[in-house]
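Risk register update: the risk of archive-format incompatibility is retired. Evidence:
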Amino acid sequence: MDLKQNSRQVTEGPHRAAARAYLKGIGFDNDALGKPIIGVAHGWIETMPCNFNHRVLANKVKEGIRAAGGTPMELNHIAISDGITMGTSGMKTSLVSREVIADSIELVARGHLFDGLVVITGCDKTIPAGVMALARLNIPGLMLYGGSIPPGHLHGEQVTIQSVFEAVGQHAAGKISDEQLDELENVASPGAGACGGQFTANTMAMAFEAMGISPSGAAMVHAQAPSKLEVAFRTGELAMEVLRRDLRPRDIISKQSLQNAVAAVAGSGGSTNAVLHLLAVAKEAGVDFDIDDFDRISRATPLLCDLLPGGRYNAVDLWHAGGNPVFLGRLKEAGLLHEDLPTVTGPTIGELADTGVETEGQRVIRPLDDPLRDSGGLAILRGNLAPEGCVVKLSGHERRRHTGPARVFEQESDAMGVVTSGGIRPGDVIVIRNEGPTGGPGMREMLAVSSALSGMGISGEVALITDGRFSGATHGFSVGHVAPEAFHRGPIAAVREGDEITIDVDDRRLSVALGDEEIAARCAAYEPVVSPDATGVLAKYARLVGSASEGAVTIVA
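Archived output:
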């Protein structure tokens, strides 16, 4: 196999002298330019901890590539922190960034004709974006997750960023002081790495390891572990091995490997954002996969991981317990893993699942005969409020049904003001609309509202539905991704204050007590909120983005 089948177009022949001159001027000599060129993409940025270790990891990946006979070329992309932008207009940019990141990696790799690609990821949207780019390009490559933040400590107890979001609600309810809130925020996020629970970043990292596109055992090594540098070096070496095997992302991303990824999400109590992101990856890879696949797999998969936000342990605890290989071994033992699928690591995913070394006495990953639940951590509902489907997170609470009066808000900030002022009553169903992919635009997460409800002690008595998203840190009875969204006059647009809404998980229904004709008449008369984002990237996204039920991708048919 010609390992330079792409980059020869850039580096070889007298007619490429100018290109070589440019590259020699920044340190690439003839020897380097004669080797396969491997792109090393990452999102180092000084706006968040999630990606703050990426330059260090990139240097080790590059060392590994050079040691294995390749020439690395490093490139950056943008990144948006969900946690920092949460509850502000800036949160509109988060999901949009997924598309921009995938586009930018694709453009550099196509423009400079890389032979292979390593994508280093961290914050939530960088992870699916990196794999989306790999799927589009279909050149030999893999994804390395930068790792999560270890927990902070306060008065002898572990704390995470989830503790801070919930403390905001406690503060609003007068349960803690300004000084106590300040004391917590000073220690809750101690250094580099992504959020440390089974929130979206760790969920997606686990899912892609289960898919086989990420090195086995690497995802849960936390960002500050000394061994993370060795993981990065070995990833660089592995990139050259993947190139020599001519193993391409679309050889790995298949319907069966997507099913393995969904089983990992369901069995770990992972983020509902995985539905959007795995649908998007499937679309990019040309794999027939839809929202109902998630429900079918989740029904059959026991909830095995006792992880935040619904459980007791964090991502570092999962690593100490034995990490993803031990968890994948549980799925294999249960007959829930397609075993014979290829991975970038080399062995099949089933063989890798046999390599897990379980820490004696650990309680993070439960045995099959003692699951937290008999079925997984999410479900897909339909009904007259969500004919295209919606997603409900089941881990972290026991409720399966809720009926109550609608409290309707046209955007997140309206709801937050009422919640923090004590205006929500037990039994209410909070409806937040105009936060969908188009209507937002950008499909903001409702973590500020859901965490405030939890911090105020009423999350167990109310429900929340939205055409927006939820953070992986959300827990409580929350239904997101309601489709069609209000902007497109989906049925959520018909709901008025006081209408009776029922969420029925067992029946897989989300419904409002209205007849079809009344819903149709109200939807026809509904005037969506006019977005202030009439120009620029958000306006462009709003014109191109599809339904949440199909991954909220910007692929134009």
